[in-house]
Each structure stands twice: as structure tokens, then as C-alpha cells.
Amino acid sequence: MPDWKRLILERIAPLHLEPTGEAHLAEELAQHLEDCYREARSAGANDEEAYANVVAELDDLYPLREEIKLQGPATRYQAIPGRETRPAHFLDDLWQDVRYALRALRKSPAFALFVILTLGLGIGANTTVFTLINSLILNPLPVADTARLASLQTVGSHTTAKNAPLPLSYANLRDYQSRNAAFASLAGYTAPRIVTWQPAGPAQRMFAELVTGNYFATLGLKPFRGRFFLPEEDRVPGGPAVAVMNYASWQTLFGGSPDIIGKTLRINQIDFTVVGIAPPKFIGVNAVFGPDLWIPATMAERLLPNEMQNALSDRSKAVFTGVGRLKRGVSRAQAQADLTIIAASLARTDPSANEGHTALVGSLRDILFGSSESGFQPILFGSLALSMVVAIVLLIACSNVANLLLARSAIRRQEMGVRLAMGASRSRLLRQLLTESTLLGLLSGVAGLVIGYAALHLLLSALPGSANFFTPSLDTRVLGSALAVSLATGVLFGIVPALRYSRTGVAEALKAEAHTTGSSHSRAALGRILLTGQVAFSFLLLVTATLFLRSIGRAYEIDPGFQTKHLAVFSCNPGEAGYQRARTKSFYRDVRARVAQLPGVQSVSWSSNLPLWSRVVSGLEVEGRAARSRADKITTVVATVDLNYFETAGVKIESGRDFADSDREDSAPVAIVNQKLARDFWPGGNALGKRIRLPGQQQMREIVGIARTANYTSWGEPPQFCVYVPMEQNYADSMTLYIRSKGAPDSLMQPIESEIRTAGPEVLISSPRTGHEIVDNGLFQEKMGVTLLTVFGLLALGLASIGLYGILAYGVNQRKREIGLRMALGASQWKVAGLILKQGMSLVGIGALIGFAAALACGRLLSRALYGIGAADPVSLVAAALVLAVVALVACYLPARSASHIDPLSALREE
Amino acid sequence: MPPPDSEWKKGSAELLVLSLLEDQPRHGYDISKLIQIRSGGALRFHVTSLYPLLHRLEKEGWVEGLWVEKAELRRRRYYKLTPRGRQALRAKQESWKDFVALVSQVTGIEHA
User: Fold this and answer.
1) B29 to chain A, minimum CA–CA distance in Å?
2) CA–CA gap between residue B8 and residue A79 (Å, rounded)
3) What are the contacts of A759-763 at 24+ separation with CB within 8 A?
4) Where does the pLDDT of residue A721 fall: very low under 50, low under 70, confident under 90, or very high at 90 and above?
5) Does A73 reach chain B within 8 Å, measured CB to CB?
6) Could you tell me which residues come within 8 angstroms of residue A312 by beta carbon, excluding any fewer than 6 positions away?
7) CA distance linking residue A539 with residue A850, whole number of Å
8) Which residues, including other chains, have CB under 8 Å from residue B61's CB and lie 6 or more apart?
9) What DSSP element (H or E) covers A88?
10) Residue A737 · residue A591 · CB < 8 Å
């Protein structure tokens, strides 16, 4: 006979019972097992079989542990596994709940799949947008202690209107550096400039940023490889040619080769030694776009002799933006006060450049995202709008799922009733239901991460890929937020139905059929409210998307003031290829002659400006007009153009004459101005023959022609001044070739490029594009926005219509008997279908009305981003309403049809 | 959901045990054999759930456990119904009848 008592004592030892209780229990159980054993033996089992049978009794120790280990008297035996929450049992119970929830989900896979997909789409959209926001706005600089970083720019001191801040001149920056007491370290940098890299193969375009020697130290960065600049490398103008490389450029251009340190790169005819690699993800003090190389500011004039002429000494040449680390305990306001005093003293010592200007100490955000004159920050605005849109999509998804759960409650009420009858407590039921919805939320979160990751890749592939752009990535913050959103969604869509279930009375639940009770009416009402909200939100998104779609359509119709249908442009930079003045000039002539001979080319010309990328200068003088102050400077676009420019670009000369062969270097200086400039300064219309002086030039120029005002810096911009000067009178070492083709320009691009290469093999050709591509690029941001809005708008509409379909189909199912009765009493199929349609479409109508009101309210916010249409554009509203109506009709039609096909006899028999 | 059988068994376990003790005190093995025999083998309690249940009923004051030593026989623990246990048994029998009635009403509606 086995020693049962010993066996039992071994088994229950981990329960750590009080010794007397343990002994008694062991004895009692031992006798029981012994009886079992005897019985088995006498029934004919051999020793082994009997032993195995008896020991099996001890397999499941769970109830024992439950009952005895805690010695707490429980009054009810619960139908749902587990007890009231006690800390020691929490994990056990949780595990049981999770297992139970998984079982429940396996039982209705279609429901689970629908929920996971719906929520997954919502969470995925949020993950995508949050990843962008996380990398772009929350975490744009991989730098420690950004709170102490501040920006330093120049701003007009007298103007009352909010002017956009301007950069600083190098000399002023140096003075601020040496004289301020607020910054522990103050650095400066320029915007990325295009330079020509001449490797062994063909010349390539690179972006370089000129920075002061303490730039990296100020930001608190450590080099990934090599070192940053030494103090002596930033002392002497034209000093040592060294460079620090962007990590991503190093990876893409040099495959991350470790022997890059000490290598030389030939940039603009100068051999630069690479001394270090910047840390990964650092693309400069800019959220979106950064350079390939950082080069000491003292190299400015050597690297870019034309563009940066006198940049190190001339205080009116403002190209540097300041970024500084404040001393501990110094606030931005204190720094502002300190620098205002220095600015005032600079204005006294150098009034010609500094009068009327003062220093502006701002936040890092001001220089990271860049703001327009009105302080409007498109990146921040866009991110905010996008995150609102995806939050709406998620809300719709949640309310959809909540609706579905409410509809399911009819089935599960009886299940809950049985459980209550078996003694389960309400709080246990509530916990069980919440576990179910949280589990669904988490599974959806996983689906959402996958969807979000895929969407992000799709989005990035639509961006112009380059090492210079920021790269959004999934990090712990994104994962954390996805987890938080999933948990919140689980609770959000689970709590209402759960509360409703668990309030069910036992008898009520068991007795009543769901559709005859009062509570099912309030449940249906809740469902309808959720649905109306969904329709309203989808309508709002649809209207917004349609507005932007229409706005883009309008934007393409905008007349930019130059022709785009037959236009092609190529930028060339002979200066950076080492060409001297004479060679450059002959290059320009040669290219013009060669390209003009190509079949299909109507005319050819050169201009210093790429369309929509014109440079704006400040300080134009108009003869006879006294400046009210030195700060009162006229800002204008200046374009240096070759003969035939106006014909080639399609810019009409309204009066006066075009430039001619006779306008030479040694003839009288002339200019053509645009209508905006002519009208503003000579309202009488007698601008011809008047004289102006360009900033930095000695002679006055006579106005010989007036050209139509065009768009110079952005698509659909408000009119701005422009002055054209003949190429012979204003040499530039980089120009853009304009070609007017007879037909579409696309087939000409290749032959033109090879002609340019023949004329100047060393010259870098950049930005070859057709007129159509120019417009596309000009509208890139808007198109991106519209695409995202349309995708999310349709997603919202799809979710809402599925919800609409679901609730109507469920309603039809619930009202089968009523419908059967109606039909038995003579209602026609049409009438029944009409009844259901009316019910559905009235919900849609109310939702659309609310959405309409919301759209009007939001429109005010959006109007600044729209071209040529108001926010209350009737066409957009009607179009969105039509789309909504069609989709909603389909969603309502299916349940209505099934209602009209109900067989009255079988429907009535069901009851 | 677990198979309904096990749930019914759990919910009705107290009722079963109390009923068996109504006429006379019994020991654990006796109780488990009776349940098994009377249910034709459909209901079976493992020791790990039966004894905890008995101990709980004892704690509730519905049954009383006593070690009894008889000549020639081993020491055994017998359980007998207390007056409070008898009351509880009555109440449980009533609510069980109600419950069965409700269930048949529901299932009756569904299958009529």
C-alpha cells in the first residue's frame, strides 16, 4: 500500500498551511485516497493502474489552494473562475480572465477580426502621424538639454507690423558672441547652400552649411567619428579647408566607409579634408532638411566667392542665424535685454547696416520650423490638423466597435444572466468584460503598429529620398504611445457596453427577450447617437478633403505670369567648376547656340533665377524717393536675364522694350521692372525713363520696359516687386537655362542635357525639370496634404458606413416580428424597405447637418491654406454631401432589402 | 465558456452536499461515492474540490466536522448538518426550483 499521507504532504507543501490544519487535511485526504485505491483494486485493477487512477485525483490543486491557502470564507461559489480581487490573486485571476477572453474571441472570429481591423486602422493612422510628429516636432534635435537653447535673429525695431525675423551678418554675430553675458556659448550657421562636388566621376550637387567653429560644441554634440572643428580652424578668413560630414550622407555616398576621416573632397575647386562625422539623425538646426557637409564660416568667401562676397566683413550681408546655449539660470527674457543693448550700440557704431534693427532672442522652435511673416508655421499647423484628423478616425472606429458590442449585448445578456444566477458578482463580470475589450484593444494595437509602419514606408517613398531629409522612425516613445492608445481604446469602447451588461438583473436577463425591454430602447438610442456622431465627423473630413481637392484644382488654374506648357529649365554652375569670367560667358553663349539648333526648340535664354525659387534682396533705391529711415528698405526680386528671356519664359512686356543686343557692359545701364513696382512707385503710369539703383551697385539704371507681374518665390503668391537686368550688365557665375519648346518639352530633356555637357563637361547640371514639374513641385506640400486628407476622409467614411450598415441590419433583425406583422397586414415590400431606408437616412441627415455646421466652423481655420475658394465653397459642400449620400444609401439599402424579403409567416412563427 | 456541465456542477455543489447530509452524518468518501452513484456516474468530485468545499461549509457554520474513532475501524472525519445548515438547504432548494423554472421558461420560449 503506498504511503498516501506522505504523498499528499509533498503535494501540499508549497501551500504553506498552518501545521495542525495541514496534518488534518492530509489525514482526511489520505483516507479518501486509500478508499479509492482499495475500490480500484477490488474492481480488478492492478497496482499500477489503481495507483495512477488515485494520483490523478491530486492533479488539479487549484481549488485547494483557492479555498484553503487564504483561509478566507467565501460565501458564494463563483461561476466565473477566480475570486474578488486580492493582491495575491490578481495575477492568477488576470491570467484566467485573459484565457477566458481568448476563448470568447475564438468563439466569434468574425467579430474579433472586424474589431481588430477597424481599430487597427484607427490606431495605425494615429501611429503614422505620431511617428511624424515625434521625429519632427517633439524630437527634432538629437541634442541634450534643448530647453537652454535659444535662437538669435535680427528684426526691425520700429515697425509695428510683425516682420519675419532676418538672419545676422557675420561681423554682428561676432560682436554678439564676444560682448554678451547671457549665453554660455553662441554659434551661427547659414542655410544649406548648393556646392559642386567633383569626385572622379561626373560632378555632383551637395549641400553645405557654413558654421562657426563652436557650432557643435554649443549644441552639445559628440562626433560619431573623428572630431569637430578646432578653435584655430575658425580664426583666419579662408583658413584650413576642413569639413564635418552628415552621418546619412556618409552612409549613402561613401557606404559608411571608416577611412573617410582624413580623406579630401574637391568642393568648388577646393580640397576639403573630412575631419569628422556628425552623430546619426543630426541634420542641423532644421526639422526637415539639412546639409551634407558643415564647413567653417571663415571659408565662406573662398567657397562661394560670388554669393558670399564680403560676407565676413560687410555688416549688411546678413546670412547667419544664431543659436546659443543660455547660461544656467539665465532666461530668454534676460538674454533679450542683454542683446538689445548690444544691438543698440551696434546701430550707433554702424548705422548704415544696423540702424532700425535690433536683436531677437527667440525659441528654438522659431528656427527649427521657420515661420512666415504672420507667424504662421506650416509644419506645426499641418501636424496639428493631421493629428486631429486621425484622432477623429480613431473615435469613429471606437464608436463603431462600441455600437457592435451594444448590438451583441442581446446575445450575451443571457450568458451574463446565467453567470449572475450561478453566483458571479457584478464586479467580476465587469472585470471580465473589460479584460475582453482591453485584449481586443491590444491586439488591435499590434495590427495598428503593423499598419502604421507600412503607411510610414509608403509615405516616405513618396518623399524625395535623400540623406538630407529627416527620417521618422519608430522608437520607444511611438511604441509607448501606441500601447497607451490601444489600452485607452480598449477601455473606451468597452466601458459603456460592459456597464450595461453588468447592470442586467438575473431574472430580467433570463426572462426577457432583448427587443421587448425598455433598456434595449435606450441601448438603441445610444447606438444612434454614436452613429450620428460618426456621420458628422466623416462629413466634416469629407468636406475638408473636397475643399483641398478643389483648392488644388484651382491652384493649377492659377496663372503664374509665365508659361509652363512648353517650358524646360536646367541650372548650371560654371563658377563652381572653376570657370573664369570669360570662359563662363562663352559657355553661356555656346550652350544657347547649341540648344537653339535642336529640332523642337523654339527659343532659349538664361536667367539667374529658377522659377518659384527666386532670390529676394532688400535695399532697392528709387530715384527721387526719400527713404523715411534707413530701415525702410525696398525688398525686391532681382533677375539677371539673357536676350529673349521674356519670349522664352512667356512673360509679357506690357510697355517699353525688351533687352537688346545694344545693352552691353559699356552702354547705359538699363532695367525692366514689373507692373507691381511700376504702379506702386509711379501710379501715374510714367515709370519708363525713371531710374533705380540695385543694392550693392554704383550706377543708376534707367527703366526701359515694364513686364507683367509673375509668381517668383511661390505658387499663387501675392504680387511682389521684380527688377530684371541684362546679363551683359550683371555677370553671374551660375545661371538657369530656359527653353521654350514647340511641343511638349519632355522628349527634349535628354538632348538638351547632352548639349550642355558637350559645352562644359565639368559643369554641374542641377534641377532639370519641365514646366509641369515646376508647378508640381511648387504644390508638393498641398498635394501631400490633400492625399492624406482624402485617404483619412475616405477611411472615416468607410468606417461610418460599415457602422451604419451594422446598426440597421441589426435593427432589421430585431424588428423581424414587427415587420412580418406589417407585411401580414398588407404593407408592400417597397413600403417596408422605405421604412428602413427612412430610419437610416434620417440618422445620416442629422449627422450631415451637424457635420456641416462643424465644417463651417473649421473652415475659418482652413481658409488661409486654400487657393481661390472660400471655406464655405458650395461646390465642395454639395460634392461631399453627394458622396456621403451615395455611400449611406448603399449601406442602408442592403438591410432595407433584406427587411423587404422577410417572410411574414416564418417571422411571426419565430415568436 | 467552459462546458455547461461543469458550471452546473459547481453552482449546485453546495446544494448536493447539503442534501446528502440531511438524513445522516457522512464522511467525505461516502459523500463522493453517493454523488457518483446517484448521478449514474455523470457527476464526480475530485478530492481537491470536495474537501475544500466541506471545509468552507464548515466555516459557514452549515456543517460540523468531527473525528470519530470506532473499534476495528480507522479514524474518520464525519460531517453533519447544523440547524443553520438546514435553513440554508431549504433556501437553496427554493432558489434552485426558481432557477430551473426560469431556465425552462427561457429555453421553452426559444424552442417553441
Assistant:
1) 5
2) 9
3) A759/A587, A759/A590, A759/A591, A759/A594, A760/A572, A760/A574, A760/A577, A760/A579, A760/A587, A760/A590, A760/A591, A762/A198, A762/A203, A762/A577, A762/A578, A762/A579, A763/A203, A763/A572, A763/A573, A763/A574, A763/A577, A763/A579, A763/A587
4) very high
5) yes
6) A170, A171, A237, A297, A298, A300, A301
7) 9
8) B82, B84, B85
9) helix A87-107
10) yes
Sequence-separated (6 or more) residues with CB below 8 Å from residue A526: A406, A496
ipTM: 0.85
Q: Is A516 on the interface with B (CB under 8 A)?
A: no
CB A266, CB A197: distance < 8 Å: yes
Where residue A696 falls (left for φ over 0; alpha for ψ -120 to 50; beta otherwise) is left
pLDDT score, position A467: 67
Å from B108 to nearest chain A CA?
A: 11
The Cα A557–Cα A534 span in angstroms is: 35
- B57 inside 8 A of chain A by CB: no
Compute the nearest-CA separation of A79 from chain B (Å): 6
Beta carbons of B53 and A67 less than 8 Å apart: yes
- The CA-atom distances, in angstroms, between A41 and each of A52, A364, B31, B43 are 12, 87, 20, 22
Phi, psi of A818 (to 5 degrees): -60, -45
Parse chain A into domains and list their residue ranges. 4-73, 165-370, 379-556+781-909, 567-775
Between the alpha carbon of residue A666 and those of residues A663, A732, B106, the distances in Å are: 8, 17, 108
Predicted TM-score (pTM) of this structure: 0.63
Eight-state DSSP code of residue A564: -
Cell reading at A532: 450620428
Please give the average per-residue pLDDT across A347-370, as a whole number. 83
C-alpha cell at A463: 518623399
Q: Are B77 and B66 in contact (CB under 8 A)?
A: yes
Instruction: Express each pLDDT in A789-824 by its tens digit.
Output: 788 888 888 887 777 787 777 777 777 778 888 888
Cβ-based contacts of A73 with chain B (< 8 Å): 56, 59-60
Q: For chains A and B, count residue pairs whose Cβ atoms are closer than 8 Å.
A: 82
Q: What is the DSSP string of B78-102?
A: EEEE-HHHHHHHHHHHHHHHHHHHH
Residue in B35, B47, B109 to test binding to A, most A beta-carbons within 10 Å = B47
- In sequence order, what are the beta bridge partners of A621? A693
DSSP structural state of residue A469: B
Residue listed under C-alpha cell 538689445: A340
Whether B32 and chain A come into contact, CB under 8 Å, resolves to yes
Q: At which residue does the C-alpha cell 511624424 appear? A: A132
Nearest to A288 by CA among A373, A375, A207: A207
Interacting residues of A277 by C-beta distance below 8 A, sequence separation 6+: A223, A224, A225, A226, A244, A245, A246, A247, A250, A260, A261
Q: Across the strands, what pairs with A208?
A: A193, A293
pLDDT digits (tens, 9 = 90+) for A754-792: 999 999 888 888 878 898 888 887 787 777 777 877 888
Q: State how far the Cα of A512 lies from the Cα of A532, in Å rounded to an integer.
A: 28
Contact A32 B103 (CB under 8 A): no
Structural domains of chain B, ranges and CATH numbers in brackets: 4-111 (1.10.10.10)
Q: What pLDDT is stored for residue A516 in this prediction?
A: 42
Q: Which grid coordinates are listed for A486?
A: 490601444
B55 touching chain A per CB within 8 A: yes
Least confident of A264-278, A538-552, A591-605, A794-808: A794-808
How many other CB atoms are found less than 10 A from the CB of residue A232?
10
**Mean pLDDT value across residues A596-625:** 88
Q: Is A31 on the interface with B (CB under 8 A)?
A: yes
Residue of A nearest to B62 (CA): A75
Which residues on chain B are in Cβ contact (under 8 Å) with A421?
A: 11, 99, 102
**A451 has pLDDT over 70:** yes
